[in-house]
Amino acid sequence: MQRNKFFIFGRGFVFIFAQNNSMQTTTSQAILAGGCFWCTEAVFLKVRGVQKVIPGYIGGRRPHPTYEQICTGHTGHAEAIQIDFDPEVISFEMLLNIFFATHDPTTLNRQGNDIGTQYRSAIFYMDEAQKQAAEQYLEQLKTAEIFEAPVVTKLEEATVFYPAEAYYHNYYNRNPEQGYCSFVISPKVSKLRKYFADWLKD
Length: 202
Description:
By secondary structure, this protein is of the alpha+beta class.
């Protein structure tokens, strides 16, 4: 079993975690919610080992919700991304590392000016292994006190994931000059490039 190192960037410093790379041969999935899915999609589309990213909705009560319904905050869904990744290239823990470094996990139901339960920070675990890995990761964050405020990221069991309307797919790459993309998403992508250069796709 090979053990490597990876790091998470907190408030101006680096903390080292151990990464466990077990040999796996099939495509895996992860579902993460960290505010507007335009942001999280834009970040993870650039990560090596990520094969596909789909923005969508999860964790709510209404079947087949629309974007307009989600935006009311009354359906219980979170804007999220479903990530298909190659676990022989990138681990679930490394995805979490990038996730926590590129959004604010300390603001409850909010990312910047995006406010509501639909913008909550959450990890939707697909199986018991992901649940345990996420629990351990969150405990390490708490123990290390990397962030100045408590981490409020929710750990929720994955339910039905509803892909968003086609208009919202690959939004940042299709609209890089749009105001929200320029002022909110571009800094997140820049942080990825700065801190995770070795994990960028060619």
